[in-house]
């Protein structure tokens, strides 16, 4: 057994672990903003896909003119498109008072069709984009070399914590999610707070997508997110809608994912069942957290 | 306003008619009127209202039918459209007549055009000097012609204007009012089609097989023709029997998953877990169908179908239980269970062996060979194609039995006529008459279709959904929980129990979809395969939303989706840059727009009651009270979950 543990817990494993955490962490932080403002964001999965697609395609298209700067612009494009799609979700759930879960599901459905249409129109194939010449650069040493969004993600935890608990914006945001009526009577523009939070969640999920397509791989492929958005949502609930809780929860889920990848290579358990493990653990984790400490106004359209 | 003045259409109706007519009049000028012929790769001969003919086909020498009458009728249509427009502007009471006239003229133009094209086809057919191949090609060339946007829009606008005009009459107004719940889905479909059209315009380059270059105007006409071509191809399957049967085949699993999602909606739950429940149902159906005792005869089929329902029910009960007991959101749990189910499926039939604690074990459920699939189902567990079951023709001739239709008609009529025990008596009458007329058949020409018995099971499920939901006490409790969990709780209805029950039944519906794929052989063979399209589970959400969570609505929208899915196949083969994925986008957009209430103002979708409006009218003040009464209970997932959490923690 010792040999097995030594086989699994290597530096390469640590690298895999960190790479599995990053998309979950970025997306969950995005979800944190959205849900703390009172808007359920089931659309995170779709936002990741849109971000990944936009990053890969724009990097590929811009490489001839921008060279090595292209992936940076690609990252920006991923954020932008993520924010734009999130804006649609915000518009539907805030202005048109749509059911937020259905609106989010619609965006996820859109994310299963739009990439194929875009890729067919641009490249004539529906499953993947062509490989980009320059992906985001890798920083670090040895096997622990990561693309910039990795560092951005961990920085984002600190920033999110600071913004959420130490700035007027954070205070207003939390108030909006708990008691929008009370917040409004104190002069907070509830709608604007919610719009900004949902768009911010799109920007962060778009970054997660950009990390997947041009930070981790060098092209967009179908199913690139593999449910990361939903797991991030579960991590958000497990982390009790708090930045540090979210960090802890995503570290746990990331560890499980990395373990399932590492165990898949061993002859220990059927690899397909091991792949299902993170989802099973998510269900178990949800049992122990429930919805008890959710923002009180979560999922309710605001009148007024 | 006094009651003596002549009746007028409502302001909203007049505005809708105004917009429709304006769009149609503009459309007649901007889009081609008709297609005089169409080649294989969607290249076309276009006729514009100015009389100019653009031949973009490779078939440059093909003689074209005369267009004089069509053009004259088109100009007349444009004239009546403008008159209707003025009528709508002035809110005159008679513009339903001009609307009908517009519709009539446009239809006449289409009929004249169709006749001219038919004449050409006949001429080609009679031409003995042509090679058979060329004959077929030319025949298809004329047969694929027909009206284009320029004639379609005025016909549609004429109908809308006529409808709007009729709202001035009390009876019509009330009839239209009853159909108001259709407004949001129809508006959503319209908007989705509009957005899809823009996508096609951007994505698909214009098709020009002629040697002459296109100008800016020509490119526009060619592109707008492609938009019409895409949609007419998508909706084409309803026009012929074979593709219609294919559409019904594709619609079958959608009915199941749509019912599943709709059932959950009605009880305030959101079931995204239909893909997983379907997978589990299919696995269970396979286990019984392959390994069940063959001595049961056709009981094995019944057992297999029951197993499919039970498998799905079990998989649906888990999130229901978790929600009732621990208050964890069924949305996340069902999604996670989807992933787990797909892993289980791949595990069971994906590979020949699996490792366990360092040793390799054989995977007994997977069939021999390289394909990821299970063993073949036993003969007794297979649902036969409907064509085979209904066929009463002899000596290889296909004649469909009328027994089923007669039975259905008898059931409805007898049920309406009889007062006591009417369902029972109607069932008996249906069975007797159906059996008596079974041997009578209508000869049809079809080439065979995989539409199977699962379609009938789906229809039975839809009927069962309606009966359970609106005719039983359990259904009342389920609906009460869906409308207001708190009120239901105070009324003595257990929210927790009904949550579990609702998810179980929803899961059962989705699981039964497995019978279509496994027992029905919809994957070309009577076995469980890894390429089972579990995504129909997500399409179920769109179907349920569009069907307003009613059984009849679910069936209707499933058939619509089945139709466009079938049509998408021919779009994919004919156009280079637009493929079947556009249908996925359309469905997603429909969900998006329904979520937004079709962007219709609440005044249109749920106006204040007539009495209130009349009172407000009399006092010449705007209605002070805004009544927002939702038409169907849309799920309020978060709220419901909170209430149930409270209950669960008690």
UniProtKB/TrEMBL annotation, chain A:
It is a multi-pass membrane protein. It comes from the Bacteria. Keywords: Cell membrane, Membrane, Transmembrane, Transmembrane helix. The keyword Plastid does not apply. InterPro entries: ABC_BtuC-like, ABC_transp_permease. It is found in: Cell membrane. Gene3D superfamilies: ABC transporter involved in vitamin B12 uptake, BtuC (1.10.3470.10). It holds the Pfam family BPD_transp_2. The chain crosses the membrane at residues 6-26, 38-60, 72-94, 106-126, 146-165, 195-214, 220-239, 246-266, 272-290. This is ABC transporter permease.
């Amino acid at each position: 057994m010792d040999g097995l543990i030594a086989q699994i817990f290597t530096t390469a494993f640590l690298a895999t672990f960190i790479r599995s955490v990053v998309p979950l962490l970025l997306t969950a932080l995005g979800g944190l903003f959205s849900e703390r403002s009172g808007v359920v964001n089931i659309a995170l999965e779709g936002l990741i896909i849109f971000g990944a697609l936009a990053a890969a395609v724009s990097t590929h298209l811009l490489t001839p003119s921008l060279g090595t700067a292209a992936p940076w612009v690609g990252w920006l494009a991923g954020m932008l498109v993520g924010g734009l799609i999130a804006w649609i979700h915000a518009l539907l759930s805030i202005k048109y008072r749509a059911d937020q879960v259905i609106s989010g599901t619609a965006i996820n459905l859109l994310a299963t069709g739009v990439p194929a249409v875009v890729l067919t129109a641009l490249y004539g194939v529906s499953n993947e984009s062509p490989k980009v010449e320059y992906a985001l650069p890798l920083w670090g040493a040895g096997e622990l070399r990561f693309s910039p969004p990795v560092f951005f993600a961990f920085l984002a935890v600190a920033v999110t914590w600071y913004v959420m608990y130490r700035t007027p914006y954070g205070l207003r945001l939390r108030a909006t999610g708990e008691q929008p009526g009370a917040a409004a009577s104190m002069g907070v523009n509830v709608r604007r707070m919610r719009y900004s939070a949902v768009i911010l969640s799109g920007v962060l999920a778009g970054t997660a997508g950009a990390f997947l397509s041009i930070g981790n791989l060098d092209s967009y492929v179908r199913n690139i997110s593999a449910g990361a958005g939903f797991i991030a949502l579960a991590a958000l609930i497990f982390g009790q809608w708090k930045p540090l809780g979210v960090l802890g929860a995503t570290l746990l889920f990331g560890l499980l994912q990395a373990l399932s990848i590492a165990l898949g290579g061993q002859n220990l358990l059927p690899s397909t069942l091991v792949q299902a493990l993170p989802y099973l653990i998510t269900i178990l984790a949800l049992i122990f957290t429930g919805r008890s400490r959710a923002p009180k106004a979560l999922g309710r359209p605001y009148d007024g | 306003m006094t009651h003596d003045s002549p009746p007028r259409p409502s302001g909203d109706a007049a505005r809708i008619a105004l917009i429709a007519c304006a769009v149609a009049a503009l459309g007649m000028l901007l889009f081609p009127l008709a297609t005089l012929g169409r080649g294989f790769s969607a290249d076309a001969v276009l006729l514009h209202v100015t009389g100019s003919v653009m031949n973009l086909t490779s078939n440059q020498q093909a003689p074209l039918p005369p267009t004089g009458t069509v053009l004259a009728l088109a100009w007349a249509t444009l004239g009546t459209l403008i008159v209707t427009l003025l009528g709508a502007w002035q809110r005159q009471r008679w513009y339903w007549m001009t609307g009908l006239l517009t519709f009539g003229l446009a239809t006449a133009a289409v009929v004249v055009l169709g006749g001219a094209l038919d004449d050409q086809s006949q001429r080609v057919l009679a031409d003995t000097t042509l090679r058979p191949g060329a004959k077929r090609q030319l025949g298809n060339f004329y047969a694929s012609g027909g009206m284009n946007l320029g004639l379609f829009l005025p016909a549609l606008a004429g109908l809308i204007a006529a409808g709007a005009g009729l709202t001035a009459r009390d009876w019509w107004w009330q009839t239209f009012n009853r159909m108001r719940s259709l407004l949001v889905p129809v508006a959503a479909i319209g908007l989705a089609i509009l957005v899809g059209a823009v996508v096609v315009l951007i994505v698909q380059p214009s098709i020009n097989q002629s040697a002459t270059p296109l100008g800016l105007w020509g490119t526009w006409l060619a592109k707008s023709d492609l938009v019409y071509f895409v949609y007419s191809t998508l909706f084409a399957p309803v026009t012929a029997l074979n593709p219609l049967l294919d559409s019904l085949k594709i619609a079958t699993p959608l009915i199941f998953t749509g019912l599943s999602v709709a059932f959950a909606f009605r009880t305030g739950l959101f079931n995204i877990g239909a893909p997983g429940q379907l997978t589990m149902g299919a696995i269970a159906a396979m286990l019984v169908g392959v390994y069940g005792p063959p001595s049961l005869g056709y009981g094995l089929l019944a057992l297999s179908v029951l197993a499919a329902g039970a498998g799905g029910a079990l998989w649906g009960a888990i999130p229901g239980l978790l929600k009732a007991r621990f208050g964890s959101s069924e949305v996340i749990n069902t999604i996670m269970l989807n992933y787990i189910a797909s892993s289980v499926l791949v595990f069971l039939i994906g590979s020949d062996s699996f490792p366990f604690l360092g040793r390799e074990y054989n995977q007994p459920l997977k069939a021999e060979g390289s394909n990821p699939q299970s063993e073949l189902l036993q003969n007794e567990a297979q649902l036969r194609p409907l064509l085979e079951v209904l066929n009463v023709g002899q000596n290889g001739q296909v004649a469909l039995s009328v027994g089923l239709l007669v039975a259905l008609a008898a059931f409805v009529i007898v049920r309406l006529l009889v007062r006591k025990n009417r369902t029972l008596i109607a069932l008996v009458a249906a069975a007797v008459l159906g059996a008596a007329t079974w041997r009578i058949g209508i000869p049809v020409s079809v080439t065979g279709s995989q539409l199977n018995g699962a379609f009938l099971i789906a229809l039975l499920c839809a009927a069962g959904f309606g009966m359970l939901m609106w005719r039983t006490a359990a259904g009342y409790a389920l609906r009460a929980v869906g409308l207001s969990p708190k009120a239901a709780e105070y009324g003595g209805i257990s929210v927790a129990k009904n949550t579990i029950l609702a998810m179980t039944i929803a899961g059962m519906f989705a699981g039964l979809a497995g019978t279509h794929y496994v027992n029905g052989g919809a994957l070309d063979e009577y076995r469980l395969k890894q390429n089972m399209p579990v995504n129909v589970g997500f399409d179920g959400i769109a179907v349920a939303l569009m069907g307003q969570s009613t059984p009849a609505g679910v069936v209707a929208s499933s058939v619509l989706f089945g139709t466009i899915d079938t049509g998408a196949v021919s779009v994919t083969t004919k156009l280079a840059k637009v493929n079947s994925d556009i249908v996925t986008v359309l469905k997603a957009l429909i969900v998006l727009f329904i979520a937004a209430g079709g962007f219709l103002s609440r005044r249109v979708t749920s106006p204040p009651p007539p009495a209130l409006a009349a009172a407000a009218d009399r006092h010449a003040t705007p209605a002070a009270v805004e009544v927002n009464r939702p038409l169907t209970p849309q799920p309020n997932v978060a709220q419901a979950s909170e209430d149930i959490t409270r209950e669960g923690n008690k």
